[in-house]
TrEMBL record:
Location (main, coarse): membrane
Lineage: Bacteria, Pseudomonadati, Bacteroidota, Cytophagia, Cytophagales
Membrane topology: Multi-pass membrane protein
Chain segments carrying region Disordered: 1-39
Assigned keywords, A-Z: Membrane, Transmembrane, Transmembrane helix
Protein name: Formate/nitrite transporter family protein
Transmembrane segments: 63-88, 100-120, 141-168, 188-209, 221-241, 261-283
GO CC annotations, alphabetized: plasma membrane
GO molecular function: formate transmembrane transporter activity
């Protein structure tokens, strides 16, 4: 009985190896499909896997520093959100004023992504693809996610404290605005935050995919603006920008408790991870794989 099971397992492994070779072969052959340089599904997937592997090969110190930088840079979106909200709420309703922040929300993302810093939500699907392609393990994925999230959060803590000090002194926003911005993120049930974060993670994964299909900087800026402003206008939860918003509220507003901050952060991170890994990486990868015949 044991011998039969061993033989079946060995057969299954051979078939899996054969299938993986077919997938790698198809990815290697993937090329642009038109004269205007439009990239095929396979070419984008190959590029995403290659970029993901390059990130895996970086030293832990480099990953941590790059992700910390991203956490700092994304704070410029928060600075503009508070500034625009404070300015327009003097003459417009608070709801309209907050919607207008969608116009400046993309600035931090443009800085981070074009500056090649490592942002968790933009890298989620990118880092999952090498695991799906069996080039890296789930353990290595969780380890690198941990490093990137830690760097992003620490950077967010630092920039939040700096902006809380400088904002009121420049007269561009006060602690009341800080509290209201934070409440816009946390004032929902946990399930709503999680589901909203799944949609945001899905959009960020698509953002990474679309950036791989574009060739010039202007196109990339337009794509980043469209995706991230959509997230802001609809109020979808982004764990890294939200970290700055809610942590600032934790420091500057009595309405934000540590429990509310932790609840937001946990469910936003989980949702963003699921959105990017499942709805982009897994679906895009499987759509390519299911079209391949094992040779």
């Amino acid at each position: 009985m044991a011998d039969k099971q061993d033989k079946e397992e060995a057969k299954r492994q051979r078939e899996e190896e054969k299938r993986q070779k077919s997938i790698d072969s198809e990815l290697k052959k993937s090329k642009s499909v038109s004269n205007d340089g439009t990239k095929s599904h396979g070419e984008i997937l190959k590029q995403q896997i290659t970029e993901g592997l390059e990130t895996y090969d970086k030293k832990a110190s480099s990953l941590l520093l790059s992700s910390l930088t991203a956490g700092l840079e994304i704070g410029f979106s928060y600075l503009l959100i508070c500034t625009v909200y404070a300015y327009f709420s003097k003459s417009l309703s608070e709801d309209i004023s907050y919607k207008l922040t969608a116009l400046v929300y993309p600035v931090g993302f443009i800085m981070v992504i074009l500056g090649q810093s490592i942002l968790f939500t933009e890298q989620t699907s990118l880092l999952t693809l090498p695991v799906l392609n069996k080039k890296r393990s789930v353990g290595s994925l969780l380890k690198i996610w941990g490093l990137v999230i830690s760097g992003n959060l620490i950077g967010g803590f630092l920039i939040a404290m700096l902006l809380l000090w400088i904002g009121p002194r420049l007269g561009i926003f006060d602690m009341q605005i800080v509290g209201k911005v934070a409440l816009h993120a946390v004032d929902f049930p946990s399930l709503v935050i999680f589901t909203s974060a799944v949609l945001a993670g899905w959009l960020m994964g698509l953002l990474s995919w679309l950036l791989s299909s574009s060739r010039d900087t202007l196109s990339k800026i337009v794509i980043i603006f469209i995706i991230t402003s959509m997230m802001a206008f609809t109020g979808l939860h982004h764990s890294i920008v939200g970290n700055v918003e809610v942590f600032a509220g934790l420091i500057g507003s009595p309405e934000i408790t540590f429990e509310r901050y932790l609840n937001f952060q946990v469910f936003a991170l989980l949702g963003n991870a699921v959105g990017g890994a499942v709805f982009v990486a897994l679906l895009k990868y499987r759509a390519f794989v299911y079209n391949i015949d094992v040779k």
